């Protein structure tokens, strides 16, 4: 009789004590994160930001460099994320079929509205942008893949939150509602009221809540259980995207999001 296949994780999988972590790997990944967030730092700057010694950081960087995860720029000896990190990170997108199915609707949204279209998901109580189709306008919104944003100041974030259970919304809000602009929703009550309006009209509006001078209209994508798992949005400068334009843009964004819901086997919530 064949032996049962291992499940891929030991019984101690949920044990995060020091004895079950590899400290050198943990340190290397932390340094890689510092490199990715900065975009060009010297060895001494990386050591300072990571809180590690220069020899330790150098050993980590040379190891990561041998696998293509970091690169060093001459002159200046500035360290950057390498192509190896991109290739590994791209595997996340490959297993997320919503990215592939959303591409054509996003292209169509950009052509119809003349503004940038975006795709994002929730990741650890924040919005993670997965894909973008940029407008050809000189002044435009820009959220490269991998960008993280607060849920309550993002059109996609509010589109997702609007269909989350209220208990989950309150839990996320309890972690803090950062005020990024004077228009940011700073209280749980204000956020809940905005989410109720979002459900009523079928799309969310970020009215210069993340960045002054920029607006966004977004709608959710649902899975087979009717749960929001991703969001599509159109974003652009407020002087081109007036609030009066929101209903027309919202109808297009909602239709595009519904198309992706259907294409991925999802359904609208009951």
Automatic annotation (TrEMBL):
The HTH iclR-type domain extends over 22-83
Q: Which residues form a coiled coil?
A: none
Recorded hits in Pfam families, A to Z, give: HTH_IclR, IclR_C
Domain IclR-ED, residue spans? 84-266
Q: Which SMART domains match?
A: HTH_ICLR
Q: Which domain of life is it from?
A: Bacteria
| Keyword annotations of the record | DNA-binding, Transcription, Transcription regulation
Instruction: Please identify the protein, giving its name as recorded.
Output: IclR family transcriptional regulator
Q: Which organism is it from?
A: Albidovulum sediminis
């Amino acid at each position: 009789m064949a032996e049962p296949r291992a499940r891929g994780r030991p019984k101690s999988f949920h044990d995060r004590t020091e004895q079950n972590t590899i400290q050198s790997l943990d340190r290397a990944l932390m340094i890689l994160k510092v490199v990715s967030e900065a975009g060009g730092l010297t060895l001494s700057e990386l050591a300072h930001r990571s809180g590690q010694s220069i020899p330790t950081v150098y050993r980590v960087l040379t190891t990561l460099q041998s696998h293509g995860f970091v690169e060093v720029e001459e002159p200046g000896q500035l360290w950057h994320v390498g192509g190896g990190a991109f290739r590994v990170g791209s595997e996340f997108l490959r297993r997320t079929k919503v990215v592939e199915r959303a591409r054509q609707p996003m292209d169509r949204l950009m052509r119809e509205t003349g503004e940038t279209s975006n795709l994002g998901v929730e990741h650890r109580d924040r919005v993670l942008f997965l894909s973008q189709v940029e407008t050809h306008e000189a002044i435009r919104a820009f959220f490269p893949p991998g960008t993280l944003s607060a849920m309550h100041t993002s059109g996609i974030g509010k589109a997702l939150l609007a269909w989350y259970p209220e208990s989950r919304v309150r839990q996320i809000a309890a972690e803090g509602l950062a005020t990024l602009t004077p228009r940011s929703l700073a209280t749980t009550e204000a956020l809940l009221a905005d989410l109720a309006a979002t459900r009523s009209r079928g799309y969310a509006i970020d009215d210069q809540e993340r960045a002054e001078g920029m607006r966004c209209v977004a709608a959710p994508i649902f899975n087979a259980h009717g749960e929001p798992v991703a969001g599509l949005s159109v974003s652009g400068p407020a002087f081109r995207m007036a609030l009066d334009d929101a209903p027309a843009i919202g109808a297009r964004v909602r239709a595009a999001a519904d198309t992706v819901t259907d294409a991925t086997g999802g359904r609208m919530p009951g």
